[in-house]
Write a structure and sequence with these properties.
By secondary structure, the chain is of the alpha/beta class. It folds into two domains: 81 residues, Winged helix-like DNA-binding domain superfamily/Winged helix DNA-binding domain (Arc Repressor Mutant, subunit A, Orthogonal Bundle), CATH 1.10.10; 208 residues, 3-Layer(aba) Sandwich (D-Maltodextrin-Binding Protein, domain 2), CATH 3.40.190. The protein has nine helices and eleven strands. α1 crosses α2, α1 packs across α4 and α2 packs across α3. The longest helix has 25 residues.
């Protein structure tokens, strides 16, 4: 049968061991000596063990008491940490996390779920925008922590992961065969300049058939086989596939997933959220490249 240790009695036991006597333990715990003595007796009776050696002038721990002391300290530490995080005003706050929309998945939802479980009284506002805008908001104090996609990791940021930029189109699509190459992009998208520059360098004609402020418009256009789009491998829409090598489209660079933090009144929260994001990317399994469009 499973039995549970009494944390209140354990706290009295640990305090007696640390102070060397019931009287000093009672003063620290703001209890009467009789209350502390009763808790110690109840703990010993519940376990069927003698935890304190009372034969001398003072109180000493028995061998079983020494062993229990180690466990008791760990149990009380976990209890106090949980209680503090769930009830302390120090962990009641609001954090603004900025993430480019194309790297929200797959990690950010899982990170936010775990962070909410650890800090249920902290509200995380997810701000989705392009990297340059997020960096501006961080500098203006409108965001506490941001992720970005950059070729080189800037000073003051850390790199938490890498991802390859690649060409994508609709599954079973044929728009990549047409000239000029039809592309769909959001305004201010960092990848757009790299895609256009690579095409120009390769001497491939192109036209921007979708120029929008909304990611969903780009997604719908590519899925409908109206255009191609260059994005990071692993962040593409589920029904997109990589354009085949036979298309002759130029290679694109690898990008770093960067993270930057602003000064905060509660760095414990920011540091923990940053640690969870870093851990999520570190634990990411190596992804195989997505399937290609068939060259027909």
């Amino acid at each position: 049968m499973i039995r549970n240790l009494d944390l209140t009695a354990l706290r009295s036991f640990v305090t007696v061991a640390e102070t060397g006597g019931v009287t000093r333990a009672a003063e620290r715990l703001h209890l009467t000596q009789s209350a502390v003595s009763m808790q110690l007796k109840r703990l010993e009776e519940s376990m069927g063990l003698s935890l304190l050696d009372r034969t001398g002038r003072g109180i000493a721990l028995t061998q079983q008491g020494e062993l229990l002391l180690s466990y008791a300290k760990r149990l009380l530490a976990i209890n106090d940490e949980a209680w503090g995080r769930l009830t302390s005003d120090d962990f009641e706050d609001e954090i603004v996390l900025g993430v480019p929309h194309d790297i929200v998945y797959p990690h950010i939802p899982k990170v936010l779920k775990r962070f909410a479980a650890e800090f249920p009284r902290v509200k995380v506002q997810l701000l989705s925008s392009y990297t340059l805008d997020l960096k501006k908001r961080l500098q203006q104090g409108e965001a506490d922590l941001i992720l970005g996609t950059e070729v080189e990791c800037p000073v003051g940021a850390i790199s938490v992961g890498r991802a390859q930029l690649a060409w994508f189109g609709a599954e079973g699509g044929r728009v990549w065969k047409k000239q000029p190459l039809a592309m769909a992009y959001e305004n201010h998208c960092l990848f757009r300049n790299f895609a256009v520059g690579a095409l120009d360098k390769a001497g491939i004609s192109w036209e921007l058939v979708v120029n929008t402020n909304h990611a969903k418009t780009v997604e719908a256009s590519v899925s409908a086989d109206l255009a191609v789009h260059a994005c990071l491998v692993g962040c593409q829409v589920s029904d997109w596939v990589e354009v085949p090598e036979e298309a002759g489209l130029p290679a694109l660079p690898e990008f770093q997933i960067t993270m930057e933090k602003a000064g905060s009144a509660n760095p414990v929260l920011i540091d923990r959220l940053a640690a969870l994001i870093t851990q999520a990317y570190a634990n990411q399994e190596t992804r195989s490249r997505p399937q290609h469009l068939q060259a027909v």
